[in-house]
């Protein structure tokens, strides 16, 4: 019950009997003092006052502050997770506002870094926790540092390469992480607990060739599915952080348009380089994509990790509704009012009218797909 000061489980001063033992009516409660703002959550049997106390001392990192990451950050901030690190390389644009719930038109007008806009909003929501914004690209050089000193990592990214880097970094450090992805009307999520579950590379053994996977820009996405998957990830986060025995095994999938949900069993691959053999290949910089600023051209070159043979026809079909597409045997050109992409057969692209390397990687991921 709540006392007038707004805390749960308060105790009266103990009085001693002549024998020195506490009398029955003055036995101390073991329930921690919980602020009123969390009282409804702490009343839930799956969390309780002890679980709420654990949340207050928990530390998480959210990588990617787009549609999934903003929902997760909002939920965990309101839930009272004591420390939240936000990691993202991008800035707020108008087309983000349809599904990225922490931003508004003023953030987009100013072109604020997503982590800074999100951090400002979250601090207004809950001044009692610590928010650490990190405006950076999660690449092999810094992945271990950004995922270090936390109890859990949550995936809000938009490409498979970053997730494979994240998988290696978390496995190497023994940190659990929660995968999430959504596109069009469907999404999925999987808990990855080092030493206890299959890892992300058991699900996605290798990167598919650039241009073979649909993206939100080429296929669209409903805000309802990103909201649902972000909430699913948030619920699993609370289970993991409070030590619940109900942490889900398997890959959760949901189609918001048809209403179909399923949990698919994913086996641990005995030949998995990451969780079986302990080889963290995506933490090797030579296995990651790279960027190069082209002097005097207001352009950045993005190079995928491994050269591939790109299917120009398939990519052109996806990009045609979004802008002007032209191609010859060697180069596919894509133009909108604000950007230009020149894509080569080996997956290399030159992206014009971008601010920096991080923006170029975001454009590549959005329109071509890693």
Offer a quick outline of the entry.
By secondary structure, the chain is α+β, with helices and mostly antiparallel strands. It is 30% helix and 21% strand. The strands form 3 sheets. Strands 5-4-3-6-7-8-9-10 form an 8-stranded mixed beta sheet, sandwiched between helices.
How would you characterize this protein structure?
The chain is α+β, with helices and mostly antiparallel strands. Helix content is 30%, strand content 21%. The chain has twelve helices and 16 strands. It has helices spanning 39-43, 48-56, 67-79, 105-110, 114-125, 143-146, 160-173, 200-203, 216-219, 223-242, 312-319, 357-367, and strands spanning 7-8, 34-35, 59-63, 83-88, 130-135, 152-155, 177-183, 186-192, 251-255, 260-264, 290-294, 299-303, 324-327, 331-335, 340-344, 349-352. The strands form three sheets. The chain has an eight-stranded mixed sheet with strand order 5-4-3-6-7-8-9-10, with helices on both faces. Strands 11-12-16-15-14-13 form a six-stranded antiparallel sheet, with helices on one face. β6, α7 (160-173) and β7 form a beta-alpha-beta unit. The termini are far apart.
């Amino acid at each position: 019950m709540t006392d007038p000061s707004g805390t749960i489980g308060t105790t009266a001063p103990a009085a001693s009997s002549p024998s020195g033992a506490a009398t029955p009516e003055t036995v101390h409660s073991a329930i921690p003092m919980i602020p009123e703002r969390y009282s409804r959550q702490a009343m839930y049997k799956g969390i309780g006052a002890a679980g709420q106390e654990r949340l207050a001392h928990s530390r998480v990192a959210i990588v990617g502050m787009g549609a999934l990451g903003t929902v997760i950050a909002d939920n965990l901030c309101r839930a009272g997770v004591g420390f939240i690190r936000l990691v993202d390389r991008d800035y707020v644009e108008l087309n983000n506002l349809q599904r990225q719930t922490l931003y508004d038109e003023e953030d987009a007008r100013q072109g604020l870094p997503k982590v800074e806009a999100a951090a400002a909003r979250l601090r207004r929501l809950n001044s009692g926790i610590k928010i650490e914004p990190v405006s950076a690209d999660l690449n092999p050089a810094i992945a271990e540092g950004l995922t270090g000193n936390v109890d859990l990592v949550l995936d809000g990214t938009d490409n498979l390469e970053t997730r494979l880097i994240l998988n290696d970094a978390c496995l190497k450090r023994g940190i659990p992480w929660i995968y999430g992805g959504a596109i069009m009307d469907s999404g999925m999520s999987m808990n990855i607990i080092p030493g206890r579950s299959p890892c992300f590379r058991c699900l996605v053994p290798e990167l598919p060739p650039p241009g073979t996977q649909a993206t939100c820009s080429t296929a669209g996405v409903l805000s309802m599915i990103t909201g649902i998957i972000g909430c699913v990830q948030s619920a699993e986060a609370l289970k993991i952080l409070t030590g619940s025995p109900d942490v889900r095994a398997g890959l959760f999938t949901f189609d918001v348009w048809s209403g179909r949900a399923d949990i698919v069993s994913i086996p641990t691959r005995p030949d998995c380089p990451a969780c079986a053999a302990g080889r963290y290949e995506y933490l090797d910089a030579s296995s990651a994509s790279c960027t190069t600023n082209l002097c005097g051209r207001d352009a950045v070159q993005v190079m995928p990790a491994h050269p591939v043979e790109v299917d120009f026809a398939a990519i052109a079909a996806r990009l045609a509704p979004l802008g002007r597409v032209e191609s010859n045997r060697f180069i596919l050109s894509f133009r909108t009012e604000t950007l230009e992409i020149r894509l080569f057969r080996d997956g290399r692209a030159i992206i014009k009218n971008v601010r920096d390397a991080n923006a170029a990687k975001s454009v590549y991921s959005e329109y071509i797909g890693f």
